[in-house]
Specification:
- The chain is α/β, with parallel strands linked by helices and 352 residues long.
- The chain folds into two domains: 4-159 and 336-347, Glycogen Phosphorylase B (Rossmann fold, 3-Layer(aba) Sandwich), CATH 3.40.50; 161-333, Glycogen Phosphorylase B (Rossmann fold, 3-Layer(aba) Sandwich).
- It has helices at residues 13-28, 43-49, 67-91, 104-113, 129-134, 161-173, 192-205, 220-229, 244-250, 260-269, 284-295, 308-316, 320-333, 338-347, and strands at 4-8, 32-37, 53-56, 95-98, 118-122, 140-143, 153-154, 180-185, 209-214, 235-238, 253-256, 273-275, 298-300.
- The strands form two sheets. It has a seven-stranded parallel β-sheet with strand order 3-2-1-4-5-6-7. Strands 10-9-8-11-12-13 form a six-stranded parallel β-sheet, with helices on both faces.
- Helix 11 (284-295) links the parallel strand 12 (273-275) and strand 13.
- The mean pLDDT is 89.
């Protein structure tokens, strides 16, 4: 019997890309893979291009503003739950795999109500609220970092094959170029605070660096003209970098948020990093990055305490010999075969 799985993921590249890495592997193993997402987010454009059938439910983030807002949100979530049940009844998947976005809440609960095995994967070192709730009803819990859940299976974050190949290549030929190659990214959505850093760095370091800067959708013109305002030419601006592995290969150092997938990729590649975590209340991005700071290959600057001169000094004083010694330590933190481990766990689920 051909196994049928519905993957629930959406919102940002950090949720979609690891789920796609799993989907590709499952399809090679002759599984039937379909997707559940929302029409208003990135997955609506990306997933159909990957030849994967996608279903849609509405996305509603819980907003604790007033009693009417709370009641309205719960009504919308109930509708999403009901639509998820209808999709499951129609498609009849053997397994539901959720990847941690808000859409996982109603779809995960629907899986439990329909008695379909629910598998959750937590990408961060600190679990999100949705996965904390779903962990109480999940058939199996997988996690990227140790000790996130007490009863979960450690599998890492599923990496792209190109990242895995690069991890071996980069460690053999790591070098610091002149000018120093700086990759800056605020993630697929961009980040205002990080978008300002590139201009400040060029003003300090001038022709000592060359920057590739991913600015996020809708930010290209604004950031481009800020660079050009000071007559700089040692930069390339992109809204979104399609082949991030090529950017990692090019770079000597990266300045970025510390989302789960970004940290996992940088850990595998062994790329020196300056992390500026998004200031979540639970500091999940900070704790994602702390392992790399502890071994010395990364430095964390909290958003409220950014010192651009300290960042410029770190970049200007990159030391190849010191970095070569450290990147081998980062490799030991990486779970390169995450996709295979996840497949093994999914394949253990009995289907009827």
């Amino acid at each position: 019997m051909k196994k049928k799985i519905l993957i629930v993921a959406g919102g940002t590249g950090g949720h979609i890309n690891p789920a796609l890495n799993i989907a590709y592997f499952l399809k090679k193993k002759d599984w039937e893979v379909r997707w559940l997402g929302t029409k208003s987010r990135m997955e609506a454009e990306i997933i159909p291009k990957k030849n994967i059938h996608i279903y849609f439910i509405d996305f509603y983030r819980f907003k604790n503003k007033n009693i009417f807002s709370i009641i309205f949100t719960f009504i919308k979530l109930f509708i999403s739950l009901y639509k998820s049940i209808l999709i499951y009844k129609k498609y009849k998947p053997h397994i539901i795999l959720t990847m941690g976005s808000y859409i996982s809440g109603p779809s995960g609960l629907a899986a439990w109500l329909c008695r379909i095995p629910l598998i959750i994967h937590e990408q961060n070192s600190i679990p999100g609220l949705t996965n904390m709730i779903l962990s109480k009803i999940a058939t199996k819990i997988m996690q990227a970092y140790p000790n996130t859940f007490a009863n979960a299976i450690l599998v890492g974050n599923p990496l792209n094959n190109k990242i895995i190949k690069l991890s071996l290549y980069k460690r053999k030929i790591f070098k610091i170029h002149k000018p120093i190659r700086v990759l800056i990214t605020g993630g697929s959505q961009g980040a205002y605070i990080i978008n300002k850093i590139g201009i400040k760095l060029i003003k300090i370091l001038k022709n000592k660096i060359f920057i590739i800067h991913q600015v996020g959708k809708g930010n290209f013109k604004k950031v481009y003209f800020q660079y050009k305002k000071y007559n700089f030419n040692n930069f390339i601006i992109k809204e979104y970098i399609q082949n991030i592995h090529k950017a990692y290969k090019w770079a000597d150092i990266i300045i970025c948020r510390s989302g789960a997938m970004t940290v996992s990729e940088i850990t595998a590649v062994g790329l020196p990093a300056i992390f500026i975590p998004f200031p979540h209340k639970d500091k999940q991005q900070y704790f994602n990055a702390i392992y790399l700071q502890n071994i010395g290959i990364a430095k964390i600057f909290e958003q409220k305490n950014i010192n651009i001169y300290d960042i410029a000094n770190l970049i200007a004083n990159l030391n190849k010999d010191k970095i070569m010694h450290i990147i081998n330590k980062s490799y030991n933190l990486s779970i390169i075969n995450s996709v295979e481990l996840i497949f093994q766990e999914l394949n253990k689920i009995k289907i009827y």
